Amino acid sequence: MFITLEGVEGSGKSTQLGNIRAFLKERGYTVVVTREPGGTDIGRQIRSILLRPDNREMEALTELFLYEADRAEHVRKVIAPALAAGNTVLCDRFCDATVVYQGYARGLALEEIRRIHRFILGRLKPDLTILLDLPPEIGLARAFAQIDAGGRSGAESRFENEALVFHRKIRAGYLDMAHREPARFCTGSTDSTDSTDSTESTDHDTNHTRSDRKHATGGDPESEPESGGRAVGQARVR
Predict the structure, then answer these.
(1) Three-state DSSP state, 150
(2) What DSSP string runs through 178-200?
(3) What average pLDDT score do residues 19-37 get?
């Protein structure tokens, strides 16, 4: 089973990643936790280039191909072997982040990004993508507070320093993708005071994924998504 987490900056992915990992391990899953960029030795070097704030003048195409180079290493050296061994892979960001950041926000052609993904991923696609949604103003405030408190690296703050309009495009892009692929996306607000335990929804969705969906390597990653009709699945998260 292949699960990915997505969201704007400061959406709480790291916190929820730990919660979901613990939840799955308690239920007997062998979990491999990884991230993009930076899930391999080469990927960590690429990550330092991509996220360094003094690289703010990087061309959008350069950014795109660095992410794809990281992904090629990551899929072949971490994700595919882990799935082949029967493990559950839990990944902090994956190809949807590239579509949103470099496509919706940077303005690169979405179909060209998807074509590159078809080349790199083949038939690999997440079984479940958990989208943690909140207004970017709140997410950025959280992110900079974490940087000030030392809980987040200022050396990896290039995207946090982008203009607010960029982050609004990211949020809109994620929500559009979730609307188009409701069978894969489970969207929940991380700007909620509701005290419902997020693991309840995770339990439902991971069980549904295992029993009703094909393995991540068995579906077409670029099949036409649904354009509407069904509501996006809701996961209550904190």
Answers:
(1) coil
(2) HHH-TTTEEEEESS------HHH
(3) 97
